[in-house]
Each structure stands twice: as C-alpha cells, then as structure tokens.
Amino acid sequence: MYKTTRKCKCCGQLFTPEHGRQVFCSLTCREQYKKRSRRLRTTSQNSVKQFEQIRDALSSKDLLTITEAAEYLGVTRPTVYARIKAGELVPLRVSIRSLRIPFDQLQKDSNRLPPPFKGDYSVLIPKDEALARYDVSLRRMYQVMNAEGIRSKIIKGKTFFPKKEFDRLFPIKKNFNPEEWYDANELIESEGLTRKYISDYIRRKNITCRRIGRQLLILREEWDKSKLVHGDIEKNYLTVDQARKVYHIGQKTFYDGVHEAGLEGIRQKNYVYYSKLELDRLFKDKTPKIPPEIRRDYIRSGDALKKYHIGQKRFSEETRAAGVTKVRTEGNYVWYKKSELDELFKL
Question: Is the domain covering 230-286 a CATH 2.40.50 domain?
C-alpha cells in the first residue's frame, strides 16, 4: 500500500490511513461527522415545515408586501424585484413607496415546476469550499453549470453544488507547496515516465504521497533521494546492455536472474539502471573461467587475426587443413595453440 496522507473529512487534519477506505482520522471524528449530517438533515426537514407554515399563514391574504412575497416563494427580496423588472410579476402601487403583489400571481408563480436536477447530487460541497477547491471563477462556474443543466441546492440559506460533477468539470487548484511536493503529471512530462511506473515506484520505495482528487502529490525530498545523480550512475550502476557485455550473458539470462533475485532497477529517461554490487553478486561468478595455461599457450581467433594480419576466411581454411589444435572453454570460446599458429603463418 501507499505510504500516503489524507485529509480528514471531519476536522481537516492530515493523517496516515490504516486501510484504503479510511476517510476519518479517528472514531471521534467519524461520530461527529455522523451527528453533523443528522443535524443537517433535521434542519433541512424543519426548514421545509417552517416554509409550509409560512405559506399557510400568507395564503389568506389577497395582497402581499415584497417581504411577504419573498417568504411565500422561498426567495430573497432582490429576486422578487428582478421578477418585477422582467415582467413576471405585476405589482399594485398602494402609495408612493409601497407595492403590493396580488396573491393570485404568486400562486401561479409558485405552481411552476422547477427544472429537474441533472447530475450526481449524492455528495454536496458548499459554494465557498468549491471556489477554494477548484481552479475556476464564480462567473465561469455558473456558465458551465447552466450549459450542463446543473442546479445548486439551497439548504438552510447556504448554496451547495454536486461535488462529483464538479470534479468532472473543473480542474482542482494546486493548493500545495511545489518546493515540498512533486505533481505526478509534471514528472510524466519532464522525465517521460508513465503513471503506472510512478505508482509502482513510490509503492516499492515506500515514498510518502498525497491525493487531492485525481491529483497525485509525491514528497520531493524522498523522491530525489531515491533517484540517481549522474556521477553515481557512472560509478555504481549499469544499464542492461552494459551488464550483458560485462558479465557475458544473454538478455534472457539477465532478466531471469534479476527477477529471481528481486532486484529493482531505477529508470531515468529511457534507461533502467541496476546496482553493480547486486549484479556482481548475481553474475560475477558466472563469467567464463579460463585456466591460466590456456591463456598462456593458446589464443582466440579474433586476437589471432590481428596478430598475423590475415582474414577470417584464410585463417579458417588453413587451420582446418593443418589440423591446428584447438580447445573450447566456458563462455563458448574457441582457443588455438600459439606455437602451431606461429609455424603455420611464419611469424
């Protein structure tokens, strides 16, 4: 599992979860959140009952003031004035500074069906938290909501939005210190890594990370320590191709040994580096063992071509015809006797 930190859903403090679905830092926070949710539901139900009582009390009047009209419709006074200006309501002027609205007009207005809610409203987020969480202005937010057919919900005078729909529509603000955390998307662009590789790497190396919505943050200090500097690469690490040449092994042998031993490579750009110490432990004893007498009295064909200044075809034909003594050693090397070659090619 990730060594990650999360923000408590109740108190907002950072904590390290013990399992994948833990969203509260303690049992106390979990109980407080449940009580708060029950209190919110109760308040909402009471406000609906109170609204119905106000309507029943005002329904006996023929003319209502602006304040009473707003209470009857469940809106604010500016909303009533906006509807008067738009021609939806036609008030009666009873004095120079007083307006009255006929109850029949309000009854027709209240009977209008509101547009249906579109989207997932299972999780709500207040307007203030939405503006702090998402990288979008209030004007742009409402423009997108109108285009998508999303409505806000008013609960106890506070405006709420569907959080899951907002996660889909708007980017989340970078509310983290870039000097302390890496954004995984930035690493993907700058180092050419994949999201899967980064996730696997921080899990193997036990690097601290955080999630903010779909954003993956990685602790910069631990990530930098786990990576390699250029001088360290040249001194203590080998690529796959370098290791195959050093230890005289094939690609299958290399990967079989590395996977069996559980060695972890470190990727930088397009190369994967492995520690020389760990590779020596695996493959150094498997380098070809050539007896000293063979190295003293025999020579390999490639070295013989350089020594006698001849071509491969002539060397093969004449040594075969002369029956030059040859031996085969580990590493599939073929060695020819030096004294016989000296006599054959008149060195």
Answer: no
Token couple for 294: 């063979």
Region 214-243 average pLDDT: 76
Residue range 177-199, pLDDT digits in tens: 778 888 888 888 877 778 888 88
Mean pLDDT (the chain, rounded): 81
Helix ranges restricted to H, the chain: 27-58, 66-73, 77-85, 103-110, 127-133, 138-148, 163-169, 184-191, 195-204, 220-226, 230-236, 240-247, 251-261, 276-283, 292-297, 301-308, 312-322, 338-344
Give the residue carrying structure tokens 């999303």: 150
DSSP structure class, residue 277: H
Separation between Cα atoms, residue 260 and residue 129, nearest integer Å? 50
347, two tokens: 């060195």
CB atoms closer than 10 angstroms to residue 131: 15
Entry pTM: 0.31
Given a cut of 60, whether residue 219 has pLDDT beyond it is yes
User: Which residues have a Cβ under 8 Å from the Cβ of 297 and sit 6 or more positions away?
Assistant: 337, 338, 339
Domain boundaries, the chain: 124-169, 181-225, 230-286, 292-344
End-to-end CA distance of the chain: 69
d(CA 224, CA 177): 16
Q: Which two tokens stand for residue 84?
A: 């008067």
